[in-house]
């Protein structure tokens, strides 16, 4: 069983949206684009315990807080989920509500004619919905779930109840928040789900309640509490009959099953010892964040083994967990679940998915959409796995992408930006602070295809490259909205001609002094008396040899502001103006907007 499509209307930051899932899926995108909203929307429809919360929704769950219109009519939240790959048991159980899904067209058939349902790629499906609205009569918010097929004669729909949802097997883990009650017995906790799946009927309640009723709490006179309660009783009896408010005393809980479910929790050893040498234990949620997450995921594995057909949705599994554990978690959850849905900001998580399973989510003016990443142009699967995927994943996680022609520019521009920021932090920002991810095209012929690829994913795309032939430049500019062409055909020449002589000599002599000048260039070893043209020639050979070692970045890293090439400084200023076109400046009268310097590239 897996979710194929979700439609969302008027929910949180989404006025309207439609997403398609290709099996296991990781949702990526900038913060506040709607990734968590998607999982919350699925939970409203499929989560067995979700509507048991009170209230199920509130004012802030409506888009822009709008739950009534100008005529005081209710503006509802509407969510629709299509589930496919049903098991035989699910097909029999939901037989009265089945529709037919065409995987090729990503749509439902209008009807079930035999010739349509027998086609390849057409499967039985279940479509369920949620509607949330403001009830004027009750001055309250309501939420209901229902089967969307078939419609009843009165226009309504058959309710989609908790037992129906449990058969679907959806489980949503919010970031960290699940850990605080994972090993409690509260309804809907992970331990409660495991007990229910194993059909365990707890028989302990009456025994525990009886013990708690007899447990003395603060009844010693020297504590003073019993004396205060007696005075309270005396004061109350001056207003009510004597049998009222009789014998006030304290107990540890309300002594109900539900109260115990919330109060009981598992204690675990902390590694600390008491003075008597015994182990000190603390509640599960007091463990370290990483430990909590890993233990929660261990419970998930047990649930998957018991349930056999489960859909997991999980927010940011990477939090407080080292990279190698992130990979193991993703691999384990995907293997044990029918479908796993994640949100993530970690390239280590993304590396565990095929690009076709990465859904880049964006939201514009309240409209949510998703684009499947797929492989970048001219990058074969083997090359993607071996080398490109780390840089590619970082770009998928960013909103803005800077494409460089080659490795030299890839190293040089971040180093220059960091150096400029050191000298004038009010004027310059690092590329990391601007939210830019860098991708090296490795050759000028791949700049335009990569630019088109990232533009289709909704990224702001910029590119820096050497001087091009007119036709090549025209192609790049047609695909990429923000381009910066160097004045030289070789970026090393940009560095060597644009960097001040003082910085070149300081850098070159430093290489010699530290023993880093290569032996094969011994005939061109820099000296203090070497003419500038010979020094540039020697450094060009060195930078060509040290391309993979970041030689260009090292050179820019020792430059002062006045020593740095004008092209690099101007390009970085222009990039910053594009990425952050307006900056806020605090004045005595409050914030005012000041237009940034226009781009010069």
- Proportion of helical residues: 25-40%
Instruction: Please tally the helical runs, counting DSSP H or I stretches of 4 or more residues.
Output: 20
Radius of gyration: 32 Å
Largest sheet: 14 strands, mixed
Q: Give the overall silhouette.
A: globular
Quantity of strands, as a count: 22
> What is the straight-line distance between the termini?
52 Å
Average pLDDT reading: 85
What would a concise description of this structure say?
The protein has 601 residues and is α/β, with parallel strands linked by helices. The protein contains 20 helices and 22 strands. Residues 583-601 have low confidence and may be disordered.
Outline the structure in words.
By secondary structure, the protein is an alpha/beta fold. Helix content is 35%, strand content 23%. The chain is built from 20 helices and 22 strands. The strands form four sheets. Strands 1, 2, 3, 4, 5, 6, 7, 8, 9, 10, 13, 14, 15 and 16 form a 14-stranded mixed beta sheet that branches. Strands 18-17-19-20 form a four-stranded parallel beta sheet, with helices on both faces. It has a two-stranded antiparallel ribbon with strand order 11-12. Strand 15 (358-364) and strand 16 (367-372) form a beta hairpin. The protein starts with a strand and ends in a 6-residue tail after the last strand.
